[in-house]
């Protein structure tokens, strides 16, 4: 194996394809190869393959430590992750191939969560585009760039459903809906993997399996406890969809599933994932999660390692439990060799599927790093897609779009920082290449209007807090006092015709380990906003956020609010495109925005309760399911988002009022008309309600959507063909069934403004 001929890696930018399952002949060839290789391996070498140590490269910012190189040479490493730089990766691969006894190449992973150096919007934002082509494209570009830098495995897509914006990791997922989340999971797997043949197609890793998004109280790494009915009906779908699409690897989650840590939960990994869903790829743990088992209050490291392996975990990320304890466990008879062999086989198969045995340097053509990263084409994609993700929440008096004339004041702590734009988990980002919003506005207004700028406030008045949420050198602090910053901003505002307030959270206050109990705008920014509004000039608020934040006060007081999330490396230009009307906003929320934190969890696809509130009466109702001090309804519902134009929905019809439960179908159609004066995209949504089931069914569930473009005055009829598959759910016995009875189908622009018709399933 040491005498590989290193073919010049051909650049293949093949259109993405669904990963085709291997033919029987291909599988037999792989089995033979892996069996022969395993026959040569010692137990130590096998345990080496199960070991995924950290590289410390990106986290510490140092070059990879020599210890890892030595371990690789000794055959003690199956892969490592988060190294940036094709040369460094190639050298490590060389050590594996040339210096280890069997020359088995490494898996080289990275958290390429929403792009490499061309950074796309955070995944929550991407989901708000409801644009599967765009999302697939973002993953494709990420794979092209990451692979050009030597990465062959991304720890993405993160498909955890979450209904709790206190949990900072909502930023990394696709919001609260299992159907939309599943479509997105599929698109991302397609984008990363293609058919896993070319040197720009890399392994995807679906995470975090499972239920990580249901952390109690929104506190990261916290306990999860839920019924199996809820798991199957509300949380599992996106993981399964990614597996169905051919995702090659799965990452376990940190949390308990039914009282047992996911990493060693045999029911979850063996029965559900491999048994029921037929997953035949490789399972990796999350960072250190075997080691955390004893902290959860279960066994020690040797026992946890044995159980994790037995449950179906193959690769140990950073716990050193497999490499550190399994040899002894095999020798003392507590771990059967068969379990080790199963895991080794799956890891070698992943390497085989990547083509690493044929050409271990397949992803190490260092020339590509210079030509395929942060290209003009990729940046144009990121800019176009980012603009689709912004959600226009309010636009009284059509303040937006702004004309490119007069004096525009850009004020706020988010206005002049490049490092805060891309968003959390931009591990390969190069902030020096990105524009600040101020630069984006300057470019957009050049020669047409004057741009004024003031910072106005820090993110938080409290320096310690701000430091904690501006990691990785994303330091944004202004040494002046909050009063001085405010005074300067008011002077600037006084000169302006219109004010754009760039406010929100720092990007690292969402993402991993960034839970929050207060989701309102930090006090110092609220004070700034109040004073800007008091000038009486038109104010547009840009809300930078990695989660649904609480904008109750703003929704009453600010005329125009555009939620811009964290829009990636090209966010500055994309925001300018939308603010100044070159692009009409079209994003719609994929996670409910609450009135206040006390409403959480608040989500659209809830059950009805036995005592629902009378929706016609907004007042508090005694002995009904409602709050004394807040409405049940959220501030902005799932699916909500405005446009600069207006759309109307008419002629909602069904082509039949009944269907057969086996193979019947009904087509629901609705006509959407652009009644405004500019072209725009609308996301047409269809929901289903199963009125009476053998178990309680949600008040509505998204089942279909379509993104359409309409010129002013134009109409389009959008249809949804309902089949039994759209009506199925897991019953009390967890059988996937459609039950005869009455159903409702609803259509509209969001999850609340819906027209509804009944039909029967016979
Ligand atoms: C995160 C994962 C990530 C891993 C490797 C963990 O802390 O939960 O999402 O892939 O680290 O960086």
In words, what does this structure look like?
The protein has 762 residues and is of the alpha/beta class. The chain has a six-stranded mixed beta sheet, sandwiched between helices. Strands 18-26-25-20-21 form a five-stranded mixed beta sheet. The protein has a three-stranded parallel beta sheet with strand order 2-3-4, with helices on one face. It is globular. Residues 1-17 have low confidence and may be disordered. The structure holds beta-D-glucopyranose.
Describe the structure in brief.
The chain is α/β, with parallel strands linked by helices. It contains 23 helices and 26 strands. The longest helix has 18 residues, at 337-354.
Q: Helical segment tally?
A: 23
The biggest beta sheet is recorded as: 6 strands, mixed
What binds here, in terms of ligands, is: beta-D-glucopyranose
Strand order of the largest sheet: 11-16-15-14-12-13
N- to C-terminal distance: 62 Å
Strand content: 15-25%
Quickly give the structural class.
Answer: alpha/beta
- Gyration radius, to the nearest Å? 26 Å
Summed over residues and divided by their number, the pLDDT gives a mean of: 95
Based on DSSP secondary structure assignment, what is the total number of beta strands? Answer: 26
What coarse outline follows from CA principal-axis ratios? globular
Helix content: 25-40%
Contiguous runs where pLDDT drops below 50 for at least 5 residues: 1-17
Secondary-structure map:
Elements: H1 24-40, H2 43-49, E1 51-52, H3 57-60, H4 66-73, E2 79-81, H5 86-99, E3 107-110, H6 123-127, H7 132-148, E4 153-154, H8 178-193, E5 205-209, H9 228-235, H10 237-244, E6 249-252, E7 256-257, E8 260-261, H11 266-276, E9 282-284, H12 293-296, H13 301-311, E10 316-317, H14 321-331, H15 337-354, H16 366-371, H17 376-389, E11 391-395, E12 407-411, H18 437-445, E13 450-454, H19 463-468, H20 482-495, E14 498-504, H21 523-534, E15 539-544, H22 552-557, E16 560-563, H23 571-579, E17 647-654, E18 658-659, E19 666-674, E20 680-690, E21 701-710, E22 715-722, E23 729-730, E24 736-737, E25 741-748, E26 755-761
Parallel strand pairs: 1-10, 2-3, 3-4, 5-6, 6-9, 12-13, 12-14, 14-15, 15-16, 18-26
Antiparallel strand pairs: 7-8, 11-16, 17-19, 19-22, 20-21, 20-25, 23-24, 25-26
Helix pairs in contact: 1-15, 2-14, 7-8, 7-17, 8-10, 11-13, 13-14, 17-23, 18-23, 20-21
The protein binds beta-D-glucopyranose.
Beta-D-glucopyranose binds next to loops.
């Amino acid at each position: 194996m040491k005498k590989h001929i290193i073919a010049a890696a051909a650049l293949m930018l093949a259109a993405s394809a669904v990963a085709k399952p291997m033919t029987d002949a291909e599988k037999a060839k792989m089995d033979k190869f892996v069996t022969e290789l395993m026959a040569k391996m010692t137990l130590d070498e096998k345990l080496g393959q199960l070991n995924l140590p950290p590289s410390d490269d990106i986290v510490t910012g140092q070059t990879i430590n020599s210890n890892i190189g030595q371990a690789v040479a000794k055959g003690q490493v199956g892969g490592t992750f988060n190294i940036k730089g094709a040369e460094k990766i190639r050298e490590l691969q060389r050590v594996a191939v040339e210096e280890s006894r069997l020359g088995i190449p490494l898996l080289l992973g990275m958290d390429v969560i929403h792009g490499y150096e061309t950074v796309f919007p955070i995944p929550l934002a991407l989901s708000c585009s409801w644009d599967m082509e765009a999302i697939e494209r973002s993953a494709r570009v990420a794979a092209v760039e990451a692979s050009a830098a030597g990465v062959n495995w991304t720890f993405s897509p993160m498909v955890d459903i979450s209904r709790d914006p206190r949990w900072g990791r909502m930023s990394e997922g696709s919001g609260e809906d299992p159907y939309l989340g599943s479509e997105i999971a599929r698109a991302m797997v397609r984008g990363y993997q293609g058919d896993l043949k070319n040197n720009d197609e890399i392994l995807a890793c679906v995470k975090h399996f499972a239920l990580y998004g249901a952390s109690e109280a929104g506190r990261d790494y916290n306990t999860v406890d839920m019924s199996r009915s809820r798991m199957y009906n509300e949380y599992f779908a996106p993981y399964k969809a990614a597996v169905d699409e051919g995702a090659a690897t799965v990452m376990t989650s940190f949390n308990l599933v039914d009282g047992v840590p996911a990493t060693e939960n045999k029911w979850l990994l063996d029965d559900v994932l491999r048994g029921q869903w037929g997953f035949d790829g490789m399972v990796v743990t999350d960072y250190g999660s075997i080691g955390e088992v004893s902290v959860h209050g279960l066994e020690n490291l040797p026992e946890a390692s044995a159980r994790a392996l037995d449950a179906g975990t193959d690769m140990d990320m950073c716990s050193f439990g497999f490499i550190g304890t399994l040899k002894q466990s095999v020798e003392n008879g507590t771990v059967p060799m068969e379990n080790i062999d199963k895991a080794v086989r799956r890891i070698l198969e992943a390497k085989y599927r990547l083509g690493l045995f044929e050409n271990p340097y397949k992803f190490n053509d260092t020339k590509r790093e210079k030509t395929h990263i942060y290209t003009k084409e990729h940046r144009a994609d990121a800019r176009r897609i980012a603009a689709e993700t912004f959600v226009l929440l309010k636009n009284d008096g059509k303040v937006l779009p702004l004309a490119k004339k007069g004096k525009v004041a850009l004020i706020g702590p988010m206005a002049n920082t490049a490092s805060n734009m891309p968003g959390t988990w931009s591990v390969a980002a190069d902030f020096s290449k990105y524009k600040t919003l101020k630069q984006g506005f300057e470019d957009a207004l050049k020669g047409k209007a004057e741009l004024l700028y003031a910072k106005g406030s820090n993110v938080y008045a409290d320096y310690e807090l701000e430091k904690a949420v501006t990691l990785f050198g994303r330091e944004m602090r202004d040494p002046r006092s909050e009063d001085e910053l405010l005074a300067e901003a008011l002077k600037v505002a006084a000169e302006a015709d219109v004010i754009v307030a760039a406010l929100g959270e720092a990007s690292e206050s969402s993402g991993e380990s960034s839970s929050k109990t207060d989701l309102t705008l930090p006090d110092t920014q609220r004070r700034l906003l109040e004073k800007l509004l008091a000038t009486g000039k038109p104010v547009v608020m840009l809300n930078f956020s990695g989660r649904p934040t609480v904008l109750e006060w703003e929704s009453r007081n600010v005329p125009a609010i555009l939620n811009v999330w964290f829009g990636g490396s090209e966010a500055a230009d994309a925001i300018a495109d939308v603010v100044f009307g070159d692009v009409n906003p079209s994003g719609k929320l994929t996670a409910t925005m609450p009135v206040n934190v006390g409403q959480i969890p608040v989500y659209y696809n809830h059950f009805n309760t036995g005592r629902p509130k009378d929706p016609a009466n907004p007042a508090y109702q005694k002995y009904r399911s409602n709050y004394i001090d807040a409405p049940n309804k959220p501030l902005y519902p799932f699916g909500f988002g405005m446009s600069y134009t207006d759309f109307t929905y008419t002629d909602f019809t069904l082509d039949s009022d009944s269907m057969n439960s086996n193979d019947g179908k009904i087509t629901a159609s609705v006509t959407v008309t652009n009644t405004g004066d500019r072209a725009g995209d609308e996301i047409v949504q269809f929901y289903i309600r199963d009125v009476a089931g053998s178990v309680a069914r949600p008040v509505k569930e998204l089942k279909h959507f379509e993104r359409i473009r309409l010129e002013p005055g134009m109409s389009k009829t959008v249809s949804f063909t309902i089949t039994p598959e759209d009506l199925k759910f897991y019953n009390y016995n967890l059988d996937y069934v459609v039950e005869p009875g009455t159903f409702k189908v609803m259509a509209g622009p969001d999850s609340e403004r819906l027209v509804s018709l009944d039909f029967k399933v016979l």
